[in-house]
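Hi Y.,

Following your request, here is the sequence exactly as I used it, all 84 residues.
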Amino acid sequence: MARNFLQISPAVKLEGRAIWTLSADGTNRVYGESIRKKKGDVWRKWDPFRSKLGAGILRTKKNPELLFPPIGSTLVYLGAAHGT
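Below is the corresponding structure, written out as tokens. Let me know if you'd prefer a different format.
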């Protein structure tokens, strides 16, 4: 990852307007997205134009607590329009 990134949560970082998420599926690509490897982790570039949650991350990046639950919380996300 570049040096000028904003850590939104342990698994979400912003680099400019690019959203990078920690991959739970290694280097497997779903939509042909960009993949980066850093210190043994795989980061996936997330397109905010394909995701309401991604768009929300960009809108609340200066106040991530408005969107993200506290670490350790349990939640259900029911926004899988494409099943991914």
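Residues 6-66 form a domain with the Phosphorylase Kinase; domain 1 fold (CATH 3.30.200).

Thanks again,
Q.
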